[in-house]
Amino acid sequence: MIKLPSELAINKVEELHQQFVQELETGQPICIDINDVSKVDTATIQMLCALQKRLINSDQQITWHGESPVLFESVEQLGLTDILSFSSKI
Fold first, then answer.
1. STAS domain: from which residue to which, for each copy (predicted)?
2. Number of separate domains in the chain
3. How far is CA 45 from the centre of its chain?
4. Which helix (H) or strand (E) holds 53?
């Protein structure tokens, strides 16, 4: 499981990308803990969308663990809830 930090900003994207690549290489399902996320920018959401697209092409998807109203609201405002498979319960 990858635990996201409280602030998801462009300066964290490369570090997160490396974590996602390492997790993808294991061949295991990708589970992301979003409980601590309190701030997010569009660069991070774009990276999450790219990861989800890559997983969907392999008949997989991100499994979200926890809740982050800030992340959900940002994704919803961008119209990406379906792409990221967010339910209205997040």
1. 1-90
2. 1
3. 7
4. helix 42-56
Which segments in the chain show pLDDT lower than 50?
Answer: 89-90
Specify the CATH number for the domain of residue 37.
Answer: 3.30.750.24
- Say which amino acid occupies 47: M
Distance CA 66, CA 22 (A): 22
Where in the sequence is the domain holding 61, given as residue range(s)?
2-78
Q: Are strands 39-40 and 2-3 parallel, antiparallel or unpaired?
A: unpaired
Query: What confidence score (pLDDT) does residue 35 get?
Result: 97
Cα 53 to Cα 10: distance, rounded to the nearest angstrom? 20
Backbone angles phi, psi at 56, to 5 degrees: -60, -40
Q: What is the pTM of this model?
A: 0.89
